[in-house]
Design a protein that fits this description.
This protein is of the alpha+beta class. The chain contains 5 helices and 4 strands. Helix 3 links the parallel strand 2 and strand 3. This is Ribosomal protein eL8/eL30/eS12/Gadd45 domain-containing protein.
């Protein structure tokens, strides 16, 4: 399960401008092959999960479900966020380690 370090690292990645947020922006980053990791909130709708997971599978991008939309948004200093794309391999690897994967 996620921990405080996971959310702190998300905030750091956001300040480094290595995070894309919002469903359409995330899908665009996956298509452009810039997304290294996609994070979906646990409370995302079934259609959103399917759409993003299908894109991730097709373009071979790792994805995880972590936290709720409120906690994800709060960690990057924004409103609720359902999907985040991490655009840096280093941040992506460290976030996966913090999630225990």
């Amino acid at each position: 399960m996620e921990n405080d370090n996971f959310y702190k690292l998300l905030g750091l990645a956001n300040r480094a401008r290595k995070i894309a947020t919002g469903e359409e922006m995330v899908v665009n980053e996956i298509r452009k092959k810039r997304a290294k990791l996609v994070i979906l909130s646990n409370d995302a709708s079934a259609s959103t999960k399917k759409k993003i997971q299908d894109k991730c599978n097709f373009y071979e991008v790792d994805f995880v479900e972590a936290g709720d939309r409120e906690k994800l948004g709060q960690s990057i200093g924004k409103e609720q966020r359902v999907a985040l794309a991490v655009l840096d391999e280093g941040f992506a690897a460290k976030l996966l380690i913090n999630l225990g994967q």
